[in-house]
Task: inverse folding
């Protein structure tokens, strides 16, 4: 699909970025079972999650919140066999962390124990698997119409190139690619993870003066 939308800037005009194709993959997962609770004086029980196991991808956040029933009074939590990349809150029992590439693997026999000073209860042993990050293979072809005039209507004679801004948020185009060739009117952005990406283009002249951004276009990588 191509959609040309002229936009006027401070020094020159650049048309809308138009995306043609993309593909890719990636994702994240986390576990959460609700906030810890305290009942009356019934037999205390604690659960981590229904399957007692979970997975998280490298670079993605992991959170597990245990659910407590029964017992009474102030609760304190302990954990056994937590990995070095995991943080544990002894007041809430929340187990969390963000693993890096070196942490890929399986972490078994984790156990969270809760005590109210009179009773104790432990979860069944559970496993957390850290998955290697999927390679980022998504692409997007960003196209634009080369400007021919300055914002004051005069002929543009010193166009030097373009800068493609992109990111996973329309308000935070934190990544960029430069095309130092005024004759180019498209650029293929590579290495995109799954999700929606946003793109805009700015032109610049030989003096280094850049225009404002074009309208923002988006592409969803699946």
Result:
């Amino acid at each position: 699909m191509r959609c040309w939308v002229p936009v006027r800037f401070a020094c020159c005009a650049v048309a809308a970025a138009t995306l043609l194709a993309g593909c890719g993959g990636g994702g994240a997962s986390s576990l959460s079972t609700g906030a810890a609770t305290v009942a009356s004086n019934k037999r205390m029980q604690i659960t981590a999650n229904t399957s007692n196991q979970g997975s998280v991808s490298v670079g993605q956040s992991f959170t597990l919140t245990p659910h407590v029933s029964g017992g009474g009074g102030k609760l304190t939590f302990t954990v056994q066999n937590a990995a070095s990349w995991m943080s544990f809150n002894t007041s809430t029992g929340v187990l969390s962390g963000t693993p890096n590439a070196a942490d890929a693997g399986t972490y078994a026999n984790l156990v969270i124990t809760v005590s109210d000073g009179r009773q104790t209860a432990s979860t069944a042993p559970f496993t957390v698997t850290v998955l290697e990050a999927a390679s980022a293979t998504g692409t997007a072809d960003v196209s634009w119409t080369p400007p021919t005039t300055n914002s004051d209507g005069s002929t543009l004679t010193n166009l030097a190139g373009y800068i493609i801004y992109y990111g996973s948020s329309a308000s935070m185009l934190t990544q960029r690619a430069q095309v130092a060739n005024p004759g180019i009117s498209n650029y293929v952005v590579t290495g995109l993870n799954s999700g929606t990406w946003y793109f805009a283009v700015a032109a610049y002249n030989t003096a280094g003066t850049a225009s404002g951004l074009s309208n923002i276009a988006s592409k969803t990588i699946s």
In short: The chain has two domains: 18-25+136-221, 45-131. The two ends are 17 Å apart (CA to CA). The chain has no helices and 17 strands.
